[in-house]
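Lab notebook, bench 4. Continuing the backlog of folding jobs that were queued last week. Each job is logged with the same field layout so the records can be merged later without manual cleanup. Today's entry covers Integrase catalytic domain-containing protein, a 839-residue chain. Filled in by technician R.K.

JOB TYPE: sequence-to-structure
TARGET: Integrase catalytic domain-containing protein
LENGTH: 839
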Amino acid sequence: MVRTQFQTQVRWIQSDNGLEFQTNSLKDYYADNGILLQTSCVNTLQQNGVAERKHRHLLETARALRFHSGLPVRFWGECVLTATYLINRLPSSVLGNITPFEVLLGRPPTYDHVRTFGCLVYAKNTQHGLDKFADRGRRCVFVGYPLAQKGYRVYDLESRRIYSSRDVFFVENEFPFRASSDEGISSPPAPIITPPVFFEGEHTLDQLAADRELHAADLSDELAATQESQTATQAAPNAPSHVHGHVTDSSPPIMEQPSSGKSTEEPPIRPRRGLRERRPPAKLDIYATELPGGSSHAAATYPIANYVSYDRFTPTHKAYLAAISKLEEPRHFRDAVLHEYWREAMQKEVLSLEANGTWTLEYLPPGKRAIDSKWVYKIKYHPDGTVVRYKARLVAKGFTQQEGIDFHDTFAPVAKLVTVRILIALAVQRGWEMHQLDVNNAFLHGDLQEEVYMKVPLGFQQEGDTRVCRLRKSLYGLRQASRNWYQKFTLALTELGFTASRADHSLFIYRQGDTFVAALIYVDDVVLTGNDSVFISRVKTFLDSRFSIKDLGPLKYFLGIEVARSPEGVVLSQRKYTLDILKDAGVTGARPSRFPMEQNHTLTRPTDQIIPDVRSYRRLVGRLLYLTVTRPDIAYAVNVLSQHVHAPSPDHVAAATRILRYLKTAPGQGLFFPSSGSLTLTAYCDSDWAGCQSTRRSTTGYYIQLGSAPVSWRTKKQRVVARSSVEAEYRAMASTVSEIIWLRHLLTELGAPQMAATPLYCDNQAALHISANPVFHERTKHVEMDCYFVRERVISGDVEPRKIATSSQLTDILTKALGAEQFHFLLSKLGIRDLHATA
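JOB STATUS: finished
OUTPUT FIELD FOLLOWS
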């Protein structure tokens, strides 16, 4: 298993002097595989101390599980297996407070499925031919986690057998065996934290919420009926005491006393439970918690379904959203290989690469090194939500290449996301169709000049074959692959009459007479839009003849961005991406927050407290950074957190959690581009002077609209310390002017030139005076270059600085943490809309 699953060899084995490890068959196996067996001396346990200490750890944990659950000793094996499962998923001080699971597999474990060992569960009754009114659940005891199955191991109290089941309902404050062994002893139940609600199966969000409510109601009725039966049993002593196999906790029977003329002694009355409402601790208020006896253990206090609605979409678009939400793309080979369709996708990819002559198998020459590769998985969808294909892409680990040996030039342009927003806003305003294409194996069309060797792809190695792949054509992941593909694609579009944009080299424009068509390329995804449908069809045919493409129809899902179009306009959102982040972070059941960051925070102060798991924080911040593509409302908060990825503290983790709780209030919120209005640029700029408490640098922020459509914004810490607020504001103004000039050039190439000067709103009167007049003095002479640059653009008529009240400055949301009232006031002015908001 070690050799197959982790691609490494076992070199030696240490054990005690037990004969079970020294059989003839094992000795032959050790000799054949070059494994050295080392044994302890007789009665010298300390020579095998690691294993002996772990035995003690396992048995101590197993005993604790058995004592708490009350399980009989015959279940000792289940206790040890569960102890092993839990120890592997708990942080270890020996490993630097990292779990053994993460050290072995490279990813942190999830805890949403962990339950209380030995508690009562109701497992689905899978018997065939049940009566309509028969029990649908069987009373069982939870005894562990099965190997290589997604479910739970349960012990059936009636049939006395152990089996695995996925469909179980937990009652974590009841322990059947403890009730029978410790009768008469009561202890206060522990609080139960309801796990996050995840989406699985083929349910939509609304269906999932309805199903869970119905399931919880059924179980509540069943438990209520059971309790009524128990009450009736206690009231009538002659009635049978067996109710659905439930072990009751009734009072002990009254023993007959010898006739002595005295009345029979009544049994002791147990203390009543208090009627005061029990609440969880205040520190757990942000989580979805319930105490025993709550309305429903299965329902979260803040279910995510309360914040996502699909009522505003057509049935076709609902089906599409449900499809892309239902399926998950695996991140690792070990996850994908478990599914037949992903194995077929990998097989198809390798066959395609071999048929294309991507590599030849050769022995690695002396002095050369072979780079490694990995699999990346992607699901492609039709416009109706059905799956086009399961795409397994083989990616070379180009970061191990050596410059000058197996690569030289690497530059290749990638479409700017501002260009994507500009192009979509322009297409919506002019009523153009937007089409999406997918190029099959795009990078394979590039020619490879260097001598590059790669190891055989994971899952296709042949035992005993030491040959490697010598790459003859470009492959995804190679340093030079993007450049080679871009050159190939540029030549093809140039033959068709397109020219590359000077503002964005990934944008290609065709203009002939009244015909205008734009093609935007992002690796192997292509967006086509324009006013001539016939010519667009011709472009598709031409590209298919050159590169083999798949026509994905109207633009609906591009780079993780969902595009919802109606006669009113287009909304760009990252709903699925947001829900995936919330799910992975385990906060789908958390209490939402009204704004993303506390006002007057101290997160920029230096601290010596560093969290042990830095990688998970960095990964979360990286995902949030990409979310700002359609969420300018979290741009400032994410910018603050990204400044501390090298040494995050617990306060930064708490701040990141707050952002997630804010995202939960509106996972489907996005940018709204109206289908009517002007195509005039409007810009806002601002700065937060000396806002960073550790460096005293200022924060620049700008926000630019095309009509009322938000197309460009930025939050960035300035590179130098500003000596005054005027200097900080003026540097922010210079950065904004640079973006305005670039946008004006881009719009001119797209056929929407800006005839008038672009208004630039600033709330600093001194900065406005400097931009319009040659004012220099001791406090501004060191920013003279910025002064000349801005004033030159003002004189040329490209920019017109204007005064705006501080309370109406939209860019405040990008430069500082605001209170809830001001935050939502400015948010309402940013061209934001949430199509998934509940009624």
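OBSERVATION: Residues 205-235 form the longest helix (31 residues).
SIGNED: R.K.
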